[in-house]
Amino acid sequence: MQLTPSGPPRGLRARLAAAACVLLAAGAPGTVRADATSPAWSLDASGLVYAEKDRTNIVEPVAKITRLLPGGGSLAGQFEIDAMSGASPTGAQPSHQVVTTTSSSGGSSTQSVDQVPTAPFHDFRGAADLTWAQPLGPLTFTTGGHFSNERDYQSRGGHESVALDLFQHRTTLTVGGGKNDDHEFPVGIGGIRVGLTNTASPQFQSSGDQAKTVTDGLVGISQVLTRRWLVSLTGARTHEEGYLTEPYKIISLIVDDPLSATFGAPSPDSALTENRPRTRNRSSVVGSSVYHLADDVLYTSYRYYWDDWGIRSHTVDVRYRTDLPDHDWLQPHLRFYTQTQADFFTFGLPLSMPVSQRPEYATSDFRMGPLHTVTLGLTYGFKPGTAPGDLSVRGEYMRQWGDGHPASAIGVQQQMDLFPSEDVFTVMVGYSLPF
Q: Using CA atoms, how far apart are residues 312 and 283, in angstroms rounded to an integer?
């Protein structure tokens, strides 16, 4: 039996927050603008249901209230709640035996033969963001801050940016930056464990919380090429420093004796805690285009990402909005994503490897592996009869997979899919009301 509590990945929570922001910002065609005829207030609300097959389930309501200020400025507050439950992969490898995993809260899950081990979890997260934007001549200054809290993680930070309009608003230059102060305090495992030590006899480097700081900056330019065509290019750089290891993830020790009946299977009695570097530098470049056809609008973007952990990724995103009668609209969505694995990603370490020969860093977290996804989605926007405001409904399906048959697989590993595919379904409902 493995005693390994696990929560939803931090990256997943960031993606959900970003998805909610996109819907709030772009879900309704009647966007509030700071001019003399605009209402002084607007309310944007969304509700998200996120479901991974046999994995994580999340319900997330979000509300954003915006107040237009004299002089064209605005003040916006966004509030969200996440109710999260389900099961998350522990990092352990599938086995030819039934595996039972128990979480710190007493829940348990049983994985059948050859199934990726997961640990049950439940959590509750609350977050608040406040943003103020104020134009001053050709410049627009934006400043803001955020705070979020959950059972084992807390984040707070701020951001600043300035945008300069040139050539009669045909060109906009933007420079910005921000800093987060995050704290991790794992529950149910006794504290922060020493990396790459045996989970059967854990060693602890701290019984308290661990901190990390995230500093980021960006520079971008947008250009109106024609009356119908707008393009932009943005570069971003992020530096993370502190505790970057996932405290609940483990690494299987693989039986590497060819004479053993379990050759290639994970040892049922031994596993290691994962360990990651304490710094990470991320960089990305995003090019995007908005083209207004006779009636419809085509949105396209490409993003290239790289970091000093060895991950390289490519993202292509295409959306096509078409107007329907009575102010209704449809927007199909297609997205491709692919990434290389981190330098220290592994499907397990040899059981016979001496402690002195173990690598300094290692993880079996699928998000650090050779990952690919395809997303198909559709958004429908409409006015709810005679009621005020605008509604939008978005549904998406994502297929995620990786290289589950690596050349390094040995013994029974060669008969398994070490990186099984995963299906993710998302439904979002958004509402926008100026008043």
A: 10
Q: d(Cα 189, Cα 431) in Å, to the nearest integer?
A: 42
- Whether 234 has a pLDDT exceeding 60, the answer reads yes
Let me know: does 87 contact 56? Beta carbons within 8 Å. yes
Residue 391 tokens read as 């509604």
Ranges assigned E (strand) in 152-228: 153-166, 171-184, 192-193, 204-206, 210-224
* pTM of the predicted model as reported, rounded to 2 decimal places: 0.88
Provide the 8-state DSSP code for 340.
P
Q: What is the dihedral of CA 344, 348, 349, 352, to 10 degrees?
A: 180
pLDDT tens-place string over residues 78-117:
999 999 999 888 888 887 665 544 444 444 445 555 688 8
List the structure tokens of 117. Answer: 């081990």
Give the number of other Cβ atoms within 10 Å of residue 356's Cβ. Answer: 5
* Contact between residue 82 and residue 16 where contact means Cβ atoms under 8 Å apart: yes
Q: What architecture is the 2-434 domain classified under in CATH?
A: Beta Barrel (2.40)
Please name the residues in contact with 32: beta carbons below 8 A apart, sequence gap of 6 or more.
38, 39, 42, 66, 68, 434
Cβ contact 44:432 at 8 Å: yes
